[in-house]
């Protein structure tokens, strides 16, 4: 009992720390993904914006969905949400609590991606290079170009090693300007996220502590109940399988005895246990037949008391099982061959 | 009993050491963040000050809030502050003690960031290069006002084509760097002296109150942990009973419907317990379907 309790407590605390661990790993993975990703700005007027904003916004969305997929509790939430009411009422507060805690954890990796992207600056530099204020920052002696040509020249700013220097605006000035804006946005974003997290965490005890305790208890309860039910079903399945297989072997040996029309040999008294374990199958031919029968026609998923020979008609090969259900018996005696 | 005591002591020491550990990790994280952050001053007249001071002060706020969020005791303190009085009086000294210990720990990472920023110097050079007096530096002395603002703003950017290898630029940069480092070291010295005095002089004032406050703040922390543990234990037992009742009611139903007499007791104990009288594929399917469609009520009386 003590061991059970310790294991359960470990699991209980472990589930939360396991989830936090996955959360942290995903945040690290998103940083690693960003640094491994080879950013290639297209340097063409309309493509820059699409590419830059795409890299800024699409991977966070993917990471958010991945955060939900990797979370084991999502199936628990879905099950609790969709189950028929039956004899047990449904509490929407519990569902909300479960969804909120999952969403909070799933938001961390996308927020890390967006922060790292903004603080690095490449995406914003690529996306908004055509919006640099040339009038204020441009060279004093810049040539007069049409609007389209200006756009083209500005779009090439992120690719300094490909295109030659242009006279419109100093490359470093434009890049520094865009980078400064990108980093300012990045820090503001991080500040906003942190403030939100702080507010969510600190306002809760002020307003709805009792409801929170209730929701937390019942969401843990649902989780534990599901695990215990799975365990109990596994135990049942084990016992079911054991009895089923024992009955199969007994059926086999009974059929063989009936088919060969000789009395079962009396086992010597002192070899009782070993003889019992052999289940009446004592030679190669019989064993082979048993194995073949196991493969060709597995027994029905129906346990029956093995008190009398049932004459199932499984002796010999290739005969299909004939009984749809076992005859009812008055006594139910299960051997336990442990 | 021994095991209980060991667990208690573990919890007691663990809370403090966990908090100190988090504090240290945040401080290291702030240094790492600073070194990996790519500081690039915009070198434009109006933007320099905002950027430089922003980089110096916004991350410390973020680190401070992180320090509060990651500290479990802040939640405990808030709950204790906001709880209805009920039958237990609230002791403000305990809440104040918890608040001050949380704040002290949360302040470490921001202070580390500010000190590292000042000792490195880039932020201050970026923020205040435009506020220098151009008369002090030969290269900027006889330049028109508008132009001098632009040039001063470009001082932090070493590679800018206008000021590359300009000795006046290096002079301004060095001057600001020196001020920045002096400020950084002074702040560090003042803070360490303050911490030293606070720790040394504390036993001279209100030691008894302090001991009481510390004891009761530990107590509140441990009480909450044990409450959560007991709730977990209770929900496990509740779930166990609930499932046992469910299987038992299934067994009753099957007995009722299949008109068999109950089996004799001998030799059935071992397997029967786990089989619950469910010995058929259809019965198992029915059990699983009932579990989904009609979960048992939350009542194990």
From TrEMBL, chain A:
Keywords: Ion channel, Ion transport, Membrane, Transmembrane, Transmembrane helix, Transport. GO terms for molecular function: monoatomic cation channel activity. The keyword Transmembrane helix applies. It is found in: Membrane. One of its GO terms (cellular component) is plasma membrane. Its main location: membrane. It is a multi-pass membrane protein. GO terms for biological process: ATP export. The chain crosses the membrane at residues 21-37, 49-70, 184-203. PANTHER family: CALCIUM HOMEOSTASIS MODULATOR PROTEIN (PTHR32261), CALCIUM HOMEOSTASIS MODULATOR PROTEIN 1 (PTHR32261:SF2). Belongs to the CALHM family. This is CAHM1 protein. It comes from Dryoscopus gambensis. The lineage of its organism: Eukaryota, Metazoa, Chordata, Craniata, Vertebrata.
UniProtKB/TrEMBL annotation, chain B:
Keywords: Ion channel, Ion transport, Membrane, Transmembrane, Transmembrane helix, Transport. GO terms for molecular function: monoatomic cation channel activity. It is found in: Membrane. InterPro entries: CALHM. One of its GO terms (cellular component) is plasma membrane. It is a multi-pass membrane protein. One of its GO terms (biological process) is ATP export. The chain crosses the membrane at residues 49-71, 92-115, 182-201. It holds the Pfam family Ca_hom_mod. Belongs to the CALHM family. PANTHER family: CALCIUM HOMEOSTASIS MODULATOR PROTEIN (PTHR32261), CALCIUM HOMEOSTASIS MODULATOR PROTEIN 3 (PTHR32261:SF7). This is CAHM3 protein.
